[in-house]
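Lecture 7 notes: from sequence to structure.
We start with the chain below.
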Amino acid sequence: MAPPKVLFLHPDLGLGGAERLVLDAALALQARGCDVQIWTTHYDPDRCFADSQDLPVMCAGDWLPRTVLGFGAALCAYLRMIYLVLYVLFLSGAEFDVVFCDQVSACIPFLKLARNPKKVLFYCHFPDLLLTQRQSTLKRIYRAPIDWLEEKTTGLADCIVVNSCFTAKTFKNTFTSLSHIKPDVLYPSLNFSTFDTTVDANLDGLVPKKRTLKFLSINRYERKKNLILALEALHDLQERLCTHEWEKVHLILAGGYDQRVLENVEYYEELNTIAKKLDIQDHVTFLRSFTDEEKIFLLCSCVCVLYTPSNEHFGIVPLEAMYLRCPVIAVNSGGPLETVVDDVTGFLCDPTPAQFSEAMEKFVKDLSLKNSMGMKGRTRVKETFSTEAFSNQLYQCICRLSQ
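Predicted structure tokens for the same chain:
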């Protein structure tokens, strides 16, 4: 039996944890002999993961608006994905046996109602209805039909997988009408070969040379990532250190940044303002977007990674950090509870400046802590989150659906 042909549908193939997972899934299936193609509503070769160019990526529907006067992002995302799936079904001539889709489930009914219905695997990173605040009556009215549609269309998938036990539990508690469905947990993995390469990133001048103890935060410039916590923790750390120790400390906030996204632009400016208000701007570097090589360089150069979002669905950054022997200080909720081992590969803390700065102080006071925790972190990633384990489980799911 020939390996199945797999079509991936993804809203925006930019930079982020969801995009990284989709690419890893496509590359894993391609390595197994599957005929893989990715369709998306937006793809910019200058703002993407480098290995996306090793895959056939097609784009349709980018002419449709992302918002209407800054509003209606969810509705526009649904319309863009519906257009994309209709284009694939009726205009693209694409041949496929199984569809892998994620983030937006609104396209699933069209795949099931096609002349030749397709089997669908839906990867749930997290229920979208929990990612949007509803502070006004108008917003609640607007979101009600979208939330209903998300739940109903998600339930039409032939196979549902989630990225963590935390997300599986959240899925069950959120989509109550789908209580009969028990999603499989498919942990994201790392392509170790990508991180084993020698990098030659030129970041000279990014940090003053005397700042030998560098802390690093990697996350998109979005408010839900709570990057303010990193700044406040750094300010609190200053109070814990003597002048000599403080002069060695520096924080790099490296974040995914898209000029088209208003929140990215506003939050970046907001964080700069907060750093100046806390009078720590000379000890902070803001880096907007970066290459894969620069990310590896940063992770290898820092003493510890600060991972600040609460109730993160999974979080790929802690895995990347631990594989490169870099300990992680993360919030004690969500996905990091399943990746970071407290007091072994890093520290799990309440999302308060006091607890984060207390953990940061340990790395300043004990320089051997990075190496000891770093080695344990690398071992954990290799044993638990390997590409082979991810690939085996995913390939089995795809083969079951193609039969």
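Points to note: The longest strand covers residues 249-255. The two ends are 10 Å apart (CA to CA).
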